[in-house]
Design goal:
139 residues; rod-shaped; 0% strand; 2 domains; mainly alpha
């Protein structure tokens, strides 16, 4: 592997800086070249990360509770919709029955009127004629 002297000098400077930071007890957060973070390092302390995790857990619990509430509301809404649908179906059927009864009533009223007319005509024919009515001067 061929490496240029410039690259070797950059690597040497980097390793010296890392070595110095390790001697001082610092945790190596990132490399000096390019700001590349090491695996497992976020730049935050353990306490900060624990606080973030606790807040995230709290937020997850809150969202799960809200989700459950929304599911319950949806179930109640579906039950209400089913109940309303059944009511409107029954109301529609009742309306049709009432319309049919109204038509039947009208038809029966016409039949009753016709029968009354027929009864009146039969009564007129069945009445004995009085002598004065038979001798009305047209004979």
């Amino acid at each position: 592997v061929l490496v240029s002297s410039d690259e070797l000098q950059k690597i040497n400077v980097f390793l010296k800086a890392e070595n110095e930071s390790l001697r001082n007890g610092d945790s190596p957060r990132s490399t000096s070249s390019g700001g590349i973070r090491r695996i497992g390092e976020s730049g935050r302390s353990t306490v900060e990360l624990e606080k973030i995790i606790a807040l995230m857990k709290k937020k997850i619990d809150h969202l799960q509770a809200e989700n459950q509430t929304l599911k319950s509301d949806l179930d109640r809404q579906r039950a209400t919709n089913d109940s309303n649908r059944a009511f409107f179906t029954q109301a529609t059927e009742s309306t049709k029955e009432i319309e049919h009864m109204g038509q039947t009533n009208s038809r029966l009223q016409k039949e009753v009127a016709l029968l009354r007319e027929q009864v009146a005509q039969l009564q007129m024919k069945a009445l004995p004629r009085s002598p004065s009515s038979s001798n009305n001067g047209f004979h």
